Amino acid sequence: MDEPTKEQNRDELFWLFPVLLVVAIIAITIFINSGNFKSSTAAAIPADLQGAEVADLIQGGNPVIIPEIGEDDGIRTVDQLSQLLQEELYQSEEEPVGEGTYEESTVPGPGLTMVIHSDSAEEGNRDIYVLDETGYEPIRLTTWDSSESFPAITSDGSRVYFVGDRDDDPNNPNPFAKNTEIYMIDMELFGTDTYAGPVRLTYNNETDYGVSVSADGSRMVYMSATKENPDNPVMMLADGDANNGIIIADTLLKNAVPKISGDGNYVVYNCILDGEYDIYLYDVREEITINLTNSDIPEYFPTINYDGSIILYEKLLGGTPQAED
User: Fold this and answer.
1) Hey, how many other C-beta atoms are within 10 angstroms of the C-beta on 101?
2) Is the bond preceding 96 in cis, omega lying within 30 degrees of 0?
3) Residue 66: alpha-carbon gap to chain centroid
4) What is the number of alpha carbons within 13 Å of residue 86 lying toward its C-beta?
5) Burial class of residue 183, CB neighbours in 10 A (0-12, 13-18, 19+)
6) Mean pLDDT of the 84-106 span
7) Has residue 35 got a pLDDT over 80?
8) Are strands 62-66 and 288-291 parallel, antiparallel or unpaired?
9) Model's pTM, two decimal places?
10) Cβ-contact 269, 257 below 8 angstroms
11) If you placed Cys at 235, which of 193, 249, 295, 321 could pair as Cys (CB 3.0 to 4.6 Å)?
């Protein structure tokens, strides 16, 4: 066999060089993508959800993960609940002093202090109160001539958060188009000479509501909607001072009231993303959204414990309510 000529060797090297260059580029790309760089669409699905369906649904720029649904749908019959109801575990011997409607109470954990909003001092004008678990002798925290709502408190009771419309036009008759903002009360200063009133945390021309804070106050979640389009709010996750906010959900969030876990790692909320009210969970660390319930019966207003291991929510056993109900 004849020896290859030098010209043939040069031709082979000429074609080998671009092939090696392409291989090198591919290797570098794989290395970068497997490193610390995150995808612009979503984080990786955790190992325990690898078998789950990733739907075409999107929340906050991330696809929604739908785990496989088991036979247990969490429904309890009236007969199953009757024993719990008969025990009357939370009935007190005496009624707390005072009148008015106490709503939206928030109890931190651990701790015995809770915050509520009530119109007990002035009918139709809700203010923020703090009290212990017995409900006796509530302490009024706000006296502004406006309505405050959505109270939240840190586990040590040092900070109270709420939503108020005190900076909006007092003649604005539409409660869903008010310029409501988030405020914080420093309970360590409250009642002292240095206390100057609630600190305003959000400054925008939108309707902020539904604030919920982690146990140490380092993270908060809340809803925000424009006055022009109040039925299409977004869900914001931010630091405890409302800075560095990001949108974690932005689609079909009417009537959503989010709750953040005590450790600040999970957010639960209800949403009609797939046509019916279901419960969703946002994992702050993994930056993923998971559909927790997927039934034909609406689920509403979830709340979550400190480490995210227990979630409670309302389930409308009778189906979707009609306008006249």
Assistant:
1) 11
2) no
3) 18
4) 6
5) buried
6) 45
7) no
8) parallel
9) 0.71
10) yes
11) 249
